[in-house]
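Re: beginner question about structure tokens

> Can someone show what the tokenized structure looks like for a real chain? I only ever see the sequence side.

Sure, here's an example I had lying around. Input first:
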Amino acid sequence: MVILMDEVIQKYGFGSGISLFIVGGVAWQLIIRAFNFIGPDKSIQAIGKVHVFFVSLFNGNTTEAFIALSAILATVFIFLLVVYIQSIKVEIPLSFGRIRGMSIKWPLSFLYTSNIPVILTAALHANFQLFATLAQNTLGKGTFLGTFNSGGVATSGMAYWIAPPHEGIINAIITNSFSATMMLQSLFYMLFMIAGSTMFAIFWMKTSGQDAETQSKQLAASGLQIPGFRRDPRVIESILERYILPLTIMGGAAVGLLASFADITGALVRGTGILLAVMILYKMYEDISQQYAMDSNPLAKKMIAS
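And the corresponding structure tokens:
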């Protein structure tokens, strides 16, 4: 059913149906953790952070109110920051060699490889946690890979140092439980996410056809060239090389930093989920805008299609 609905959306709608399912899952988690009012025993109680904030504030429990408010503000801050960074781009001027005076600007997004690097890094982290858990279950004791408690939370080993603190650092600061160990754990987790995202960003750029050589050939085949230069793919490639690799490295590091920052600050949903939701919705907005521009200008649509 998921594949069927994905194909229907790709044929008659905008974007990908699977991407919309991802956004729906993130939105569901966000709504539940913000406004849930049903407890584990099916009773009505303050579970969501918004309800906890108001109930704690009315009861005079300022500590719980600040903890709930910090999670809400961290989520809003990360969401707005991702939207802002997603809109940053470098525009390369291009012109149509066959039509004099016709030019466009080709945007290179700051997050050039999108959210793929942080997804691969999160998958790497999940696989490492899985192998560490299997090693503990097989040997009956923890190893250097990690030691886990009954709740599946790493308490020592490599799995502990590359995982976000179980308690958000803002929460820990408010409750006076912040320690040097928590600070080091947060630092190692951020470095792991940044390094992993940067590595996977370069890997994805070189293997998915987003490198300068492939992009220059595609642009040249579409009849585009750099204004003021001769029509040669090597010229376009030399210009793109100035931007693509730096954008790939900085964009990969940025998504890793954003995802890890959301995790260590105790946002309502994981940082990876926020990045996925924002980028998918932003991409859908761009697709709708592009389709509207094509429908408004049939000549441009015909030229690009040719």
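Each token stands for a local structural state, so reading them left to right follows the chain. The chain is about 65% helix and 5% strand.
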